[in-house]
Amino acid sequence: MNNEKKLIIYQVFTRLFGNNNNHCINNGDIVQNGCGKMADFTVKALGEIQKLGATHIWYTGIIEHATQTDYRRYNIRPDHPAIVKGKAGSPYAIKDYYDVDPDLASDVPGRMKEFENLVNRTHRAGLKVIIDFVPNHVARQYHSDVQPDGTVELGANDDPKYAFSPYNNFYYIPQSELHGQFDMKGSAAESYHERPAKATGNNRFDAYPNINDWYETVKLNYGVDYLNGGTCHFSPTPDTWIKMLDILLFWASKGIDGFRCDMAEMIPVEFWEWAVPQVKEKYPDLIFIAEVYNPNEYKNYLFRGKFDYLYDKVGLYDTLRNVTCGYESATAITRSWQSLGGIEKRMLNFLENHDEQRIASDFFAGDPRKAIPALIVSTCMNTNPMMIYFGQEFGELGMDSEGFSGRDGRTTIFDYWSVDTIRRWRNGGKFDGKMLTKEQKHLYGIYQKLLNLCNEEKAIAQGVFFDLMYANVDGWRFNEHKQYAFMRKYKNEVLLIAVNFDAQPVEIAINIPSHAFDFLQIPQIDTYKATDLLSGKTENISLLPYKPTELPLQGYNGKILKLTL
Question: Which domains does the chain have, with CATH numbers?
Answer without folding.
Answer: 8-139+235-456 (3.20.20.80), 462-564 (2.60.40.1180)
